[in-house]
Design brief:
alpha+beta; Gyrase A, domain 2; 4-stranded antiparallel β-sheet; 50% helix
């Protein structure tokens, strides 16, 4: 069984390496690309989307996950508040990941057939990778 990995803002964070540019759609707003310590898998992304979309003032929150980067759109005046909010969303997401991993662990321990299914799943993934290598590296 593979646990879903927690993801956080990259540390140490080199401020001078963060991309900041004017936003073309929202007046007075800037786009800030915040690097993550790794690229999240689809389960983390799903929990993250649910967490940030259920937070208060959704209409005032412009946040996008792009690979291993969180793209935040905010005004300079609101930047500190928004960064704090981003950290809260990441913490809530990682808490959701812990709960997900616990549930999966209990399910696998309770059902031996689940373990067989996971082994078969890994074998299928390996066959897909082999096919991709043949097609994409030809």
């Amino acid at each position: 069984m593979v646990n879903v990995k927690k993801v956080n803002l990259k540390e140490p964070l080199k401020i001078e390496n963060i991309t900041i540019r004017k936003d073309h759609y929202f007046p007075n707003a800037y786009v800030v690309d915040l690097p993550l310590d790794s690229e999240p898998d689809h389960v983390w992304q799903d929990i993250f989307e649910r967490e940030w979309q259920t937070s208060m003032h959704l209409w005032d929150r412009k946040l996008f996950l792009i690979g291993d980067t969180l793209r935040l759109v905010a005004t300079p005046e609101d930047m500190e508040e928004k960064i704090g909010w981003v950290k809260e969303v990441i913490a809530a997401t990682n808490k959701g990941v812990e709960e997900y991993n616990r549930r999966i662990s209990v399910t696998v321990e309770a059902k031996p057939e689940t373990q067989r299914a996971m082994i078969e799943h890994d074998e299928i993934i390996e066959r897909i990778r082999t096919a991709l290598k043949r097609v994409l590296q030809a």
